[in-house]
């Protein structure tokens, strides 16, 4: 891929980007991809050091550590990372330090899988959701969270962010898509509550807004804060861009610095794996209608596609997944190709 770009003098992909107090060395983000390799307690290990460290050596600007649960029942499977104990945070510390030594910045995605906890979860008796409705016929029956329990989870996000900050993480991303717990509250297809956390658009978005405010307070004014947000449920009667845009404006005022655009997953049969999604268009809509910086994640499989997304003002950062799994040194190969002009 890099050969086609070798005679281009500069690549926007390799330009630095300053967000709050952080300067990223380039616009490439290693997308957070669950690797199912944590131990039973949710701690990272030497496997993660090699996995993330090799992409840092390979030139990635921002290494985003995969979805890390903020509470035990939030782990999606038995190999999921957690960030709800000091031991889990300590296990991340050497990974963060090594990536920094290679010149990369490090982010961590914080989340809770809610009713989509898998069958190999170590906390099956605690599967929770916005309501008591399971995701599908083969899913576990979730416990419907009380308002008090929701408040406890808001606090848990803040505590996880504080732990991440203490071990040197540079960026926090909140996972509010894929039909996981926060997305379940946002979507009218899945939130049938009444009261402070459901019943109308303002109440449906309160959980996410409370989390952003708590995380911003925990990580301080200098750390960038992203939200991985479902922009479209890909289903009739669901959450769509016109619903997301006013919430994004509220998120920006609450301290969110960028939207990582996603779609689908709230209900069965309506995921981006089943329905084609133009992620560039989703990100471009957000950027154009709100002015909030965006990240394109999904569907970027070449340097040309990444550069086109940036050059077309669709996004400010590009998250790369499968391409970096097959070639950890992809970014360095781009650097070499531009230097060889």
UniProtKB/TrEMBL annotation:
**NADH:flavin oxidoreductase/NADH oxidase N-terminal domain residues:** 13-337
Q: Does the keyword Oxidoreductase apply?
A: yes
Q: Which Gene3D superfamilies match?
A: Aldolase class I
**Required cofactor names:** FMN
User: This protein's superkingdom?
Assistant: Bacteria
Q: What keywords tag this UniProt record?
A: Flavoprotein, FMN, NADP, Oxidoreductase
| Signal sequence interval, chain numbering | none
Membrane-spanning residues:
none
InterPro entries registered for this protein in UniProt:
Aldolase_TIM, OxRdtase_FMN_N, YqjM-like
Question: Recorded GO terms, molecular function?
Answer: FMN binding; NADP binding; NADPH dehydrogenase activity
Xref: Pfam families = Oxidored_FMN
Q: What is this protein called?
A: NADH:flavin oxidoreductase/NADH oxidase N-terminal domain-containing protein
Task: Please report the organism this UniProt entry assigns to the protein.
Answer: Pseudonocardia bannensis
């Amino acid at each position: 891929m890099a050969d086609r770009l070798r005679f281009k003098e500069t690549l926007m992909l390799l330009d630095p980007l300053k967000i709050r107090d952080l300067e990223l060395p380039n616009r490439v983000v290693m997308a957070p991809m669950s690797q199912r390799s944590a131990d039973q307690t949710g701690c990272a290990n030497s496997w993660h050091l090699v996995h993330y460290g090799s992409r840092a050596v390979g030139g990635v600007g921002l290494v985003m550590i995969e979805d890390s649960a903020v509470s035990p029942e939030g782990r999606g499977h038995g190999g999921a990372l957690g960030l709800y104990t000091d031991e889990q945070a300590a296990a991340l510390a050497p990974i963060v330090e090594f990536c920094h030594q290679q010149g990369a910045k490090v982010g961590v995605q914080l989340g809770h899988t809610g009713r989509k906890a898998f069958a190999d979860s170590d906390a099956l008796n605690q599967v929770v959701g916005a309501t008591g409705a399971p995701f599908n016929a083969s899913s576990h029956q979730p416990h419907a969270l009380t308002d008090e329990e929701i408040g406890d989870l808001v606090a848990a996000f803040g505590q996880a962010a504080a732990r991440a900050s203490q071990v040197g993480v540079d960026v926090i991303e909140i996972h509010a898509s894929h039909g996981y717990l926060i997305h379940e509250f946002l979507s009218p297809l899945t939130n049938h509550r009444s009261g402070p956390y459901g019943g109308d658009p303002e109440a449906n978005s309160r959980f996410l807004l409370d989390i952003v405010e708590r995380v911003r307070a925990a990580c301080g004014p200098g750390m960038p804060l992203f939200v991985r947000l479902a922009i479209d449920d890909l289903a009739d009667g669901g959450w769509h861009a016109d619903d997301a845009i006013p919430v994004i404006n509220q998120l920006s005022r609450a301290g969110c610095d960028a939207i990582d655009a996603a779609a689908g997953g709230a209900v069965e049969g309506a995921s981006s794996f089943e329905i084609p999604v133009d992620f560039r268009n989703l990100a471009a809509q957000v950027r154009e209608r709100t002015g909030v910086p965006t990240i394109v994640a999904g569907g970027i499989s070449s340097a040309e596609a990444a550069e086109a997304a940036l050059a077309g003002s669709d996004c400010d950062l590009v998250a790369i997944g499968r391409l970096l799994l097959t070639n950890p040194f992809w970014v360095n190969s781009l650097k070499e190709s531009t230097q060889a002009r």
